[in-house]
């Protein structure tokens, strides 16, 4: 059963436009010029109960706009969406009590008061019973290692500490749908790993739907089997993460290491494999070759060099995503 169904969703903004200078400013008072900026165009997908879906795209692709529409913060200009049986932008109280939106670059906790006081406010807003609040807060405090952070004003927290507290606060009402917009942005590697582990555990324990946007591909690879890729507001791909590589990665990477005493500096590796040298030292190299020619290229390396190790791998996911964006046709916005 699908918890999220999106059909033909679109959002277009009308923005003012004028030249610089006083004369242009005065003229715009009488004849205001505008243009339409299409942020999201005809996006359709479904998300089943319990899925964790990566929602990917470059800056300006329409990811955050889509999540804001699904969270009820924005009204679309086209299309429909059904989340848990609700139309999000109608902002039904029952719907708002079953979803959460966490934005890594936005502060939702009260800045000047201790974290726990913000949590007490959430308890009142979402009408969480005293016993449930105490139990959930204890669980979240243990899982995210909040400890003494609960007594600290939000303004005195580091970015990593604040992000943990933001996520915990968003889960106090036990949402069935969780929209995560760059939840690990600006965090160190250890904190990113902790947040990822927590999100995975919450999903497994509750069966909540999770939609995740992130520029850190480690987040996506760790949490998501399925990804939805959009660019310039349009859907480019919807499927398994592994299938994204299969569909769009036209190349393989050959990592070769040769025996001591063999100097690769005098070898034209690009010509040998009919490909591209990604990086090279005197005894090792990483080469990019067409997927169809990878076996033959590997055979030539083994035949011509004193190879001690050779591996053939797919390119990193982030490189595949970059290639997807680079290959997508430009689209004019009226």
What's the arrangement of secondary structure elements?
Blueprint: E1 2-17, H1 22-30, E2 33-48, E3 52-56, H2 63-70, E4 78-83, H3 93-96, E5 99-103, H4 115-125, H5 130-144, H6 159-171, E6 177-181, H7 189-206, E7 209-213, H8 217-223, E8 226-231, E9 234-240, H9 241-248, E10 251-258, H10 269-273, E11 276-280, E12 284-290, H11 294-304, E13 307-313, H12 317-327
Parallel strand pairs: 3-7, 3-8, 5-6, 6-7
Antiparallel strand pairs: 1-2, 1-4, 8-9, 10-12, 10-13, 11-12
Helix pairs in contact: 5-6
Description:
The protein has 334 residues and is of the alpha/beta class. The protein folds into two domains: 2-246, P-loop containing nucleotide triphosphate hydrolases (Rossmann fold, 3-Layer(aba) Sandwich); 250-313, 2-Layer Sandwich (Alpha-Beta Plaits), CATH 3.30.70.1150. Helix content is 36%, strand content 29%. It is built from twelve helices and 13 strands. The strands form three sheets. It has a six-stranded mixed β-sheet, with helices on both faces. β6 (177-181), α7 and β7 (209-213) form a beta-alpha-beta unit. α5 (130-144) runs antiparallel to α6. Residues 330-334 have low confidence and may be disordered.
Output the keywords:
alpha/beta; 2 domains; globular; 12 helices; disordered C terminus; Alpha-Beta Plaits; 29% strand; Rossmann fold
CATH class of the largest domain: Alpha Beta
DSSP strand (E) fraction? 25-35%
CATH domain topology of the largest domain: Rossmann fold
Helix/strand structural class: alpha/beta
Could you say what the CATH architecture of the largest domain is? 3-Layer(aba) Sandwich
CATH superfamily of the largest domain: P-loop containing nucleotide triphosphate hydrolases
């Amino acid at each position: 059963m699908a918890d999220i169904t999106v059909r033909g969703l679109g959002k277009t903004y009308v923005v003012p436009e004028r030249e610089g200078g006083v004369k242009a400013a005065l003229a715009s008072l009488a004849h205001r010029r505008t243009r339409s900026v299409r942020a999201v165009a005809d996006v359709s997908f479904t998300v089943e109960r319990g899925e964790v879906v990566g929602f990917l795209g470059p800056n300006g692709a329409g990811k955050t706009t889509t999540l804001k529409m699904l969270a009820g913060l924005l009204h679309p200009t086209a299309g429909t969406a059904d989340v848990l049986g609700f139309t999000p932008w109608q902002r039904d109280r029952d719907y708002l009590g079953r979803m959460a939106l966490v934005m890594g670059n936005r502060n939702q906790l009260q800045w000047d008061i201790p974290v726990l006081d913000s949590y007490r406010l959430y308890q009142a807003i979402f009408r969480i019973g005293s016993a449930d609040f105490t139990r959930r807060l204890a669980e979240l405090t243990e899982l995210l290692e909040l400890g003494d952070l609960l007594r600290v004003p939000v303004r005195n927290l580091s970015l990593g500490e604040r992000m943990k507290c933001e996520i915990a606060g968003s889960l106090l009402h036990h949402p069935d749908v969780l929209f995560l917009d760059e939840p690990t942005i600006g965090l160190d590697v250890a904190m990113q790993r902790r947040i990822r582990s927590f999100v995975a555990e919450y999903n497994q324990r509750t069966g909540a739907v999770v939609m995740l946007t992130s520029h850190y591909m480690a987040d996506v690879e760790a949490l998501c089997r399925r990804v939805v890729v959009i660019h310039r507001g349009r859907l480019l791909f919807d499927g398994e993460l592994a299938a994204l590589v299969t569909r769009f990665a036209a190349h393989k990477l050959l990592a070769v290491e040769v025996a001591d005493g063999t100097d690769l500096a005098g070898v034209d590796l690009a010509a040998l494999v009919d490909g591209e040298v990604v990086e090279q030292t005197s005894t090792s190299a990483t080469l990019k070759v067409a997927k169809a020619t990878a076996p033959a290229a590997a055979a030539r390396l083994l035949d011509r060099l004193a190879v001690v190790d050779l591996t053939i791998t797919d390119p990193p996911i982030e490189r595949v995503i970059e290639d997807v964006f680079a290959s997508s046709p430009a689209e004019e916005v009226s």
